[in-house]
Amino acid sequence: xAASSEASxxxxxxxxxxxxxxxxQVLARLTARRELSRGxxxxxxxxxxxxxxxxxxxxxxxxAMKMKGPSSAEVSELAEVMLSHARPMPAMxxxxxxxxxxxxxxxxxxxxxxxxxxxxxxAGVPVxxxxxxxxxxxxxxxxxxxxxxxxxxxxxxxVARSLAEVGIGFCFAPLFHPSYRHASxxxxxxxxxxxxxxxxxxxxxxxxRAGLIGCxxxxxxxxxxxxxxARRSSVLxxxxxxxxxxxxxxxxxxxxxxxxxxxDKLTFDPAGFGFARADLDDLLGGxxxxxxxxxxxVLAGADGPVRDAVVLNxxxxxxxxxxxxxxxxxxxxxxDGLQRxxxxxxxxxxxxxxxxxxxxxxxL
Length: 364
Fold this sequence. Notes:
Elements: H1 23-31, H2 40-49, H3 55-68, H4 72-85, E1 97-101, H5 112-122, E2 127-131, H6 141-148, H7 156-166, E3 168-172, H8 173-176, H9 181-190, H10 196-202, E4 210-214, H11 218-231, E5 234-240, E6 253-259, E7 262-268, H12 288-299, H13 305-322, H14 330-346, H15 349-362
Parallel strand pairs: 1-4, 2-3, 4-5
Antiparallel strand pairs: 5-6, 6-7
Helix pairs in contact: 1-3, 2-4, 3-9, 4-11, 5-13, 5-14, 5-15, 6-12, 13-14
């Protein structure tokens, strides 16, 4: 962090010692490409979430932070403020996993993380997925789940029940983060990725301790990993080297492995586990109904590139979950995860879990 002598804002926006931050102070620092002082990012996000920031201030903050480049400390403050405004969740088991990406990769793939979440839950690991409708693609995870018949707009207590009774729950972001509406409209109007794109995967209101987190932005994946490391989560932050915010099967992926407060950067090649190289076209999706049909086909046992990608990402989430134990070893965890993910599909367990999830919502 910058020393106090470097922290002084330019003339006209000088900070008074002990005074609360101000927008001129925060924006002057960001536009000078200097890291914010401790608490300034939290102050700015509090203004946004409380509805006290104008659209111009929200947009200026988002773009200035993008141009400066956010740090893990700054993003952590943003995420913690957002979580403090989230609707509270009832007590839940603390070993759940999330599988989610930032979006923004510009490629309209099928909903790999949604399928992987179902497979992981069918393998016996609790999943609390945080997601939303599509922002730029044809179908987001929420859209596809809805097309499958899953009831997505559940109250916190109902999500907790779903996790306990089915093994999986879905936190629909707009329902759990109502105060974020003050930023969401500006984010859509800006039309370019900003620091706000990182916050969805970092603000699951259930606060699962493990996750497979996709990041479409290679330069920001390490920032996200740093946030999870500070939380002492067990997470794989992944970036496909083809640009996907998933573990890809078209080439290698970069993984930031977060465990016990540390981050290790790795290159991961699925060919090492016998996966054939896919073409990106093999993974492209359509609208919600088309993607739902793809989910049903994969869970029914259809082979091919989409199944491979689903198994790979489900295994990655299982590896992250295994990382909650300090005894977990990398290669054995992958071998076990791949076996369990494939078996969850081949046994029919994943298909059956989806059916139970649909029935759960119908009976509420």
